[in-house]
């Protein structure tokens, strides 16, 4: 009996071959199986031919990369190797910008990160010439994303250890109930961490529940050398802490004790009698309303939005807003300094691959009926491509909101009411990184606004405790989080999601402007008012001018403008980044996890465009030491005025768990906006027509069956 239970596999047939897609969830998901059989509203797989210079690698291209590398000396002569990243090496930005639909496709290249004998190498593979060259990393420390195959392998290692088996049975847990998870170890400048790729394995019991996270075998940590496949150390504390019972922790609908119909509301769906208003051309080019953008899945980032353009209602010109936007890194530090917990400071994109953890979406529940689904092609550790079906969904969303309105008060015999309904286009993926689920939305609005939203759901990482009631606890300060259930503490933690936003407002050369609200006091006798606010504009000259910490008592707007494109009356065309609910890291700047995730030192940064600076915690985030972070790059204090610049925004959450988060969390969301400021001459949706009854005939329910 093994600790890992890979029971969930699904077979996907495509025209050339059969690929096996394994997920590393530990139990079969009923909904997953349903949709494979029915596949409602899923359109065909990605085409095997790329059409656009930014299109992701196709199945034949992955196979070609693999074939070319098979005869490369680095791979051919090594006994063991793995490919921990294979992705399109995007052509240089200026070349992509010149490329037009109908032009011959630009040469295709793949960037491959290979781990050979415990060392990482970057190989650039030219798919046209089959030439292979070595690429530069910029990182001096750290390792690439850990692959699923490596995690499967290390999860078996503890079970070959007598001491591990003994402590499991001493704790009264049956071997067949043990489920283990692979936890990235962070980096703490300890001798054992040098020149070794490490992982920490912790285990749970899944007796009587699929929600094994609620049954931790507390205090047991197995330190494993990933490449040598051996146990280095076993930390065995907390033997006196019982494994929680797990009663009523199973969250599957099928096991809920049903007393009649549990529905709180009748089913709702959005109907589009005339069909959707968006198209996805050549697999990746999305066109909707006044928007057009390139969309692709990515093993590390999840979703990449490229070349987002919005149509100007006055000139009908398609105007550039963003060259590239994606979630660059995540940081999830837990607030417990004890042996079994201090290292839990995950960086989910660079350590596990945010896209690799993007599991198939569940139609009707993850996305509405009118959604279109996009598949991803990723590569396994040996380079074999596989298809992750339904990884992204795209849909028009109408939540009953208003795009703009006015009713004139009937004081002077006015009878005016004008209202426009608000319909948005949503692009969504969900990354299930171990216990947590991140719902990532990019929402495009007709008024030119882009909203980036993150929803957190899934299961808490909890800590076992001897306490089963608050009245046994002398003071809350003894714990690292609230008691959530008998013998379970929800450890306090943060979530940070960093966005790379290469805004190109009407072209690449842009400036960053801080528009600071300042209190002004009136002179004696000047006005009955004592004070008022003024907006003071300041153009950032260098990177340090653009290291921004938000404060309610020193508020600013943050604009990215094109100084050479002005409106009719002379305002520079721009977009602003609009933060909403967010959180800042309070860890010590010299704390190792904070140094590694130094992108959380500020909420906003602006750097000059540099193709190799894309991953906010460095290219190699696993066991990184913080030498290749956004903080390090920004400290060079390069010039950023009227240049091609990249804005970085970090969305944060402090999470003090509560009983409602148990046994699975209702979604918590936050977002930020990219909003036009003097980009359009006036309200860009002024001419949007309202609905009338004829637009939306009422259908009987049987018409929809
Ligand atoms: C681009 O980024 C890399 C990695 O940080 C750095 O080594 C290089 O100097 C940068 N180039 C410029 C022009 O800043
Ligand atoms: C540990 O237990 C597992 C599961 O019962 C068994 O397969 C394995 O052989 C045991 N390992 C040792 C070293 O006894
Ligand atoms: Cu949380």
TrEMBL record:
<dbReference type="InterPro" id="IPR000269">
    <property type="entry name" value="Cu_amine_oxidase"/>
</dbReference>
<comment type="similarity">
    <text>Belongs to the copper/topaquinone oxidase family.</text>
</comment>
<keyword id="KW-0186">Copper</keyword>
<feature type="domain" description="Copper amine oxidase catalytic">
    <location>
        <begin position="269"/>
        <end position="685"/>
    </location>
</feature>
<dbReference type="InterPro" id="IPR049947">
    <property type="entry name" value="Cu_Am_Ox_Cu-bd"/>
</dbReference>
<dbReference type="Pfam" id="PF02728">
    <property type="entry name" value="Cu_amine_oxidN3"/>
</dbReference>
<dbReference type="GO" id="GO:0008131">
    <property type="term" value="F:primary methylamine oxidase activity"/>
</dbReference>
<keyword id="KW-0560">Oxidoreductase</keyword>
<dbReference type="Pfam" id="PF02727">
    <property type="entry name" value="Cu_amine_oxidN2"/>
</dbReference>
<dbReference type="Pfam" id="PF01179">
    <property type="entry name" value="Cu_amine_oxid"/>
</dbReference>
<keyword id="KW-0801">TPQ</keyword>
<dbReference type="InterPro" id="IPR015800">
    <property type="entry name" value="Cu_amine_oxidase_N2"/>
</dbReference>
<dbReference type="InterPro" id="IPR036460">
    <property type="entry name" value="Cu_amine_oxidase_C_sf"/>
</dbReference>
<dbReference type="InterPro" id="IPR016182">
    <property type="entry name" value="Cu_amine_oxidase_N-reg"/>
</dbReference>
<feature type="domain" description="Copper amine oxidase N3-terminal">
    <location>
        <begin position="144"/>
        <end position="244"/>
    </location>
</feature>
<feature type="domain" description="Copper amine oxidase N2-terminal">
    <location>
        <begin position="52"/>
        <end position="132"/>
    </location>
</feature>
<dbReference type="InterPro" id="IPR049948">
    <property type="entry name" value="Cu_Am_ox_TPQ-bd"/>
</dbReference>
<dbReference type="InterPro" id="IPR015798">
    <property type="entry name" value="Cu_amine_oxidase_C"/>
</dbReference>
<keyword id="KW-0479">Metal-binding</keyword>
<protein>
    <recommendedName>
        <fullName>Amine oxidase</fullName>
        <ecNumber>1.4.3.-</ecNumber>
    </recommendedName>
</protein>
<dbReference type="InterPro" id="IPR015802">
    <property type="entry name" value="Cu_amine_oxidase_N3"/>
</dbReference>
